[in-house]
């Protein structure tokens, strides 16, 4: 591990650099909250749909519900994938990522403060270049925050309720040729020996840590290096989220 | 029917006006051809995926194949719809529109000139405000044209082959309070007594005429008025397609 | 287009002739209304199932509901098709035709006069020789009319209620070798350059107009010729429906 | 058990009587063999589709394959059932009966003599009044026999090959109020304490015996009484099949 | 048929011998009743899940409901079978056996005495060597009996209620080389000319008789021989069930 | 975090104790390798099915393929779950765990040394009490090792090939009331604030690290404590695997 060396990545980044991140708030005219987020060439449209009431099994609990669905457009990738609707079943990877996004958001939601309301977050990948799930989580938070402000405006949530107890973002890290790198793009992702997605809050706490040895198993020192990089990356993303949300609210009406 | 009266629609249009139409060519970094088209608040991402070879049942025919799939993002509409992938089956409306788009494109394709190649067009509605199928057909043509030019550049299609024998576009027309109107937006669509989608070529020939009495059945004179309006609208759309395609090619590489 | 020439079709008809049409009312011992209709070699069994109550989303509306399902027996065609139940999904064509039949019938139903009752029409093609959807609509109307009379007898519908405000029928037209022809049989259907299905009421108003360029796009004059032929054919079918319904009621009890 | 008493059933039959059985051979213009069979109010359309070749797993075996599919039209019964194609899955009862029909036919087929050809039998219940599976088997045999003669005419089967080594038919029997009865109609079927379907060959051998205690378990003597009745009923059915097949061949061409 | 000759089967049994039968009661720590049953190399885990209430269509009937589901682990057999959950549909054989188990159990249940409670029996084949459905029925009875005793202990069933009016078991019989044999193992099953499953009560009454000619149809004398053997085998199984249930209750708590 | 305090868990363990682990090798008479593993009350049957050849997309690669499927019996848990085969779709959790098991095993497989052969591992949970996925991975390794030895005996794998480059096992860890604990049983699992599954090799390298904040997000120090505990637990499991595999081979033949 030699991250002090002058390694330059294919797109000019150093190992510890994020790709350019942009968040277009209020992209959708219909959704209560929405964000078109890009991590370099990865573009994900995140919409938050707010409805009163909760699934039947939560009725009367006094708590709200936040869930998420992730999908990729068929030609968001380099070669076209068949639609899951056409295949008639959702693949394992899609399920796994949808569940991850939902869990990540719920980790910063005070469901009591949300009241018996439901927010469904849809994350649709319009273009993929690695890190679609981490971009989705990061953008989903912004859409969720706007949907909650919308609901406050409609008085569906009390003026002093604070359903969001922290921000949440996510970033990938991986070891390539022995070097830990932040925010892998697709060509890096396929070469990584180890691949890790780290979801963290704005306060720097872990929500999810998912590391997989794609090539060779990894040792404790390598794991520590990846975690350092991921926490730093998430701190940057949290800052971007805060500044985007500090601007005037987007288009949802 | 009083289309000479000074009727002004909710968005300021006269009965014979299209909504503002924009076509962003080459929106996708991956697809061989792509276009993000908007008819007012309706936004559809059209990508064309070009591959060598044809489905097994066409092997050796010397002919190519063009097909299309249409879908709506769950929150492209005013209230969220469940994903068809989650429901595990594609609804009748989705099937019907996918088939319509495919037939419309094939009407202007010389499959012999295309050779044994396949183009799959994906039309994903990012935001819906009426006329999603007509916007999809109009944008799909641009994506298809670019994919064919890409293939010519790659020598998958001969330099003198002309797979596209005409342009094709589509527009909706309908009768509202007795007045035929062009290019209905959602609030107009739900009020229309009669609703018609007309697909036409750049030369002004009909490819598809689909008229439905939503309220009361309609007579021959009303039908004639709608057809006049639709042919004029399609002529405008054909002109927009031509000018967009005359500009420098988009991003696909 | 030379429809004045002495063109004779394979089965001896002139271009403007319907095939022999027979309607066997009350074919089913169980259904509240039923008709076995044949357009030449095309035979469709139409049953109407009347039940009190409406789907949940219509509860309390004071209105009734009419819907339809279309299907083909596996060996109704020249070569056997796999059952959709075995494939586990309904194809696009089946969906499209089921929706067309339902819309066509609803165009002549006063749902207020029907009251909160539901009629489901099943159209099962026992033998196919072109025009299955148009035979289905034409026969479905007869089954529907009988089911409504049955319900009146049972006092589910008021004695003075008139749920059916007109009759409805359908016929196909197409251009073959430049000549517009009425009521295409299978061997004609596959050769037609343009194929159109026209649903019309007994008063001669249009309910649906669906024209598709199978071969070359068609011009306004050709469209007009097809519409003329279709209205004449539907007028004949309306007359047949009226005379069948004027006879003593069929077998449903 | 008092079957010597003058018991008269609702439709005037004695306990040992079949309902009126009619077989309309060659009902279908398309199928290689077909029969519309009725057992009283039960009407089943049986078509036999003959194709050259066998499923992949039988390739090169020198043997043929016979299989069957059973289904009921939605309104063949007293109240409408949802279509299995709409539900997206085939129910257990449908599977069970399809498998039974296939096994019953294969019991009288010499698959070597059939050669590498496949016959698919479709049995679609147009109207149901009890005994649909037994009518289906009995009619399916006739359709199969005609399909084999068709294939012999086409020289797909040798002139001296005898693929059918016997006839096969089926009938239901049941105990009602202590009396064994033959060929139960629907109102009897629901009252039967024990219900048995017996498939037998023209020579009087058993192919399938399926008895179920619907009410109370049954003893050996009762079982013997039912088997006697069933063999007699099948002997009658075999005679009807023979006389129908001895007549001039039906419509398939 | 020469069952008096000294025929010795591959595992040393005479034609009239059962395989070694073991029943491990209370195998599951969670289920209200459970049994791991083996018929030689066939091992089936049967669990009974008792819940208060009945399916909606039985509400208020005062009667209980007993149903069963059967499945095989993918590698319970000699070569691996794809999971039905992965294929997305349950095969005909699975449906058929699940229904058979449910019917067999209900034949000895007094649903009035059970009250409005539901017992679901799951029979999962861990290892298969012929006779899985008969082992499943035999083991399911033991699981059901224990679940009912558990419910009595919980006062969900009255102290004097007798929901089980008899015991029930099942065994296969078949004719191999002309000899009727009891309880076929897999290698015998594939060779049998006729195969029969007989479900009987402890009092020796028939619940189900399902005989199939796998090879040649069979005559009345052969059927009688098989029934004799099956009743004797079931009498032995009933005795084993009684002695197992007479021992101290198993593990469910 | 006070793991030096004399904390005693409900089943008498200290925070750093595994539950009793037993591995019954060769449980299945049919599978090429098998193991019935228990972690306390959690029992998983793991079978390894070895077949020659690989999926089509790997043909000619010279490499083998190892994959896994996980499922739970419906009553393996405290309350019955519907079968996924009955629901017709596999849930997200099942997909996720199946994929995890497959990846974990492949991390210790040299696919070149395996040759073009496939091993499918089925892990069926017979009884669940927390940690089913970690027990499954640990048992699956034993089944895989035996299947590979079986294949070596059959000469499907060369005598000097070493397809397994390390052992692999897995264990859960979690923080309960601030204390990190090893190998959570069900009642602990539902109380854990943080839940982590760690897959590691016999050499102590990480294969997968999956940590989730169920309650509150966790900090770096807590993560470190959990990783320490998990590596120690996996070292114990590796030792158990080695001693089980050192004994005489199991039942597969």
UniProtKB/TrEMBL annotation, chains A, B, C, D, E, F:
Enzyme Commission number(s) of this protein: 2.7.7.56
GO biological process: rRNA 3'-end processing; rRNA catabolic process; tRNA processing
Group of enzyme by EC: transferase
Pfam families: RNase_PH (PF01138), RNase_PH_C (PF03725)
Reaction it catalyzes: tRNA(n+1) + phosphate = tRNA(n) + a ribonucleoside 5'-diphosphate
Gene Ontology molecular function terms on file: 3'-5'-RNA exonuclease activity; tRNA binding; tRNA nucleotidyltransferase activity
Domain Exoribonuclease phosphorolytic: 18-147, 166-232
Binding-site residues for phosphate, renumbered to this chain: 93, 131-133
Presence of the UniProt keyword Methyltransferase in the record: no
Gene3D superfamilies referenced in this protein's UniProt entry, alphabetically: GHMP Kinase, N-terminal domain (3.30.230.70)
Keywords: Nucleotidyltransferase, RNA-binding, rRNA processing, Transferase, tRNA processing, tRNA-binding
Keyword Nucleotidyltransferase applies: yes
Subunit structure: Homohexameric ring arranged as a trimer of dimers.
Similarity comment text for this entry: Belongs to the RNase PH family.
Protein name as catalogued: Ribonuclease PH
Species name: Agromyces seonyuensis
Top-level taxonomy: Bacteria, Bacillati, Actinomycetota, Actinomycetes, Micrococcales
